[in-house]
Amino acid sequence: MSKQINVTIWNEFRHEKSNEIVKKLYPQGMHKAIADGISADDLNIRLASLDDPEHGLTEEVVNSTDVLLWWGHCHHGDVKDEIVKRVHKRVLEGMGLIVLHSGHFSKIFKAVMGTNCSLKWREVGEKMRLWNIEPSHPIAQGIGEYFELKNEEMYGERFDIPQDGKIIFISWFEGGEVFRSGVAFERGHGKVFYFSPGHETYPTYYDKNVLKVIGNAVRWAKPLIYQEHTAPNAKPLEAIRTPNPHTVSAGIVQDVDGNTKK
Known about the structure:
This protein is an alpha/beta fold. The chain has helices spanning 15-18, 20-25, 30-38, 59-63, 81-93, 107-113, 208-221; strands at 5-11, 43-49, 67-71, 96-100, 120-132, 146-156, 166-173, 178-187, 190-195, 253-254, 260-261. Strand 3 (67-71), helix 5 (81-93) and strand 4 (96-100) form a beta-alpha-beta unit. The chain is globular and about 75 Å long.
């Protein structure tokens, strides 16, 4: 595995083309703003989007990606199922996956979670305060006790995600709701992190704390191994002397090569 972490940042990249507010905020796309914001010598970053061939997630791209970031919103249904299966397989083999904001409802996040991933929401531009409740976790390094975003979309509980997730951040919103806004999981050999701030009409992906969390998450999620999941028929390491009542008679011994002898 190379010293650099190969990062692919995936974005629908459609709001930036159709919404003047988003276009002004992110003229080159939210994925480009994130890439610029987390850029560092140890990261080799490339961009991909929904309208690229194979959504920019060809076999070659996916198999050479260490950590995949995913931002989706209104066009989850346009993502082809075969691409989702390709990404899901690679996550189970070891690739890291970081799902951002409304990507909670993406096909890939639902696939790795195995739940509906539903939540409450309200979009009125209210204040969001993110509490760092696991300051010793690698994803929370360099983040204070809390940080605030002046404007964000409200996401509220109940968030339908599995209970095995490690909660790193809990958010409070000006309207009163709370939300598990930063949660880490392990799936197969891969690591998954969900991070909620990032509504397209606000400059969230220019915020230094948000970018710090994302950068930390990339480094946390980098694979330690890549290993395909198989179900091999295993030969015994030692001779098996217990008779199998269905296939051999009493007194038959299986050796390490699976051969039988009396």
